[in-house]
From TrEMBL:
SMART domains: REC (SM00448)
Presence of keyword Phosphoprotein: yes
Species of origin: Terrihabitans soli
InterPro entries: Bact_response_regulator, CheY-like_superfamily, Sig_transdc_resp-reg_receiver
PANTHER family for the chain: CHEY SUBFAMILY, STRESS RESPONSE REGULATOR PROTEIN 1
Keywords annotated in UniProt: Phosphoprotein
Protein name: LuxR family transcriptional regulator
Ranges where the Response regulatory domain occurs: 3-124
Residue positions where 4-aspartylphosphate is found in the record: 52
Length: 138
């Protein structure tokens, strides 16, 4: 049973992920911000960490860097619903940046349940030495 830490400032997103993963025999731990997620990460073992890119205070990119330093082999799933792009004002590809910082898998919100299950499955099944190399995007 994989133990998954979900860090997202949106209560409905946390609740939806929990509702999807619990029936799949995942032990889900929820954190409402990066600070709380870091506390939990530092005191309890996890098999996978899911982190939203945009949160108040410490953002997900900083969180990924910190977690990657603390545990280079921890599978990290980055999530983002950021969609503010325009031809006149191009924005960086934040999921690509997350991947470059060490996210194992990236999900664009909203994602389908099957995409979530695939991300967890890939992260849990990867041999430790390849967990940083996958960086799949949906």
């Amino acid at each position: 049973m994989p133990r998954v830490l979900v860090i997202d400032d949106d209560e409905s997103v946390r609740g939806a992920i929990e509702a999807l993963l619990r029936p799949e025999n995942c032990d889900v731990v929820l954190a409402e911000n990066a600070r709380r997620g870091a506390e939990l990460f530092g005191t309890s073992p996890f098999d996978v960490v899911m982190v939203d890119i945009f949160m108040p205070g410490m953002n997900g990119l900083e969180t990924i860097k910190d977690f990657r330093r603390a545990d280079p082999e921890m599978p990290i799933i980055a999530m983002s619903g950021f969609r503010f792009r325009s031809a006149g004002m191009p924005m960086p590809d934040f999921l690509k940046i997350a991947s470059e910082l060490g996210a194992t898998y990236c999900l664009s919100k909203p994602f389908r349940p099957q995409q979530l299950f695939e991300a967890i499955d890939v992260c849990v099944r990867l041999p430790a030495q390849r967990r940083r190399a996958v960086s799949v995007r949906t």
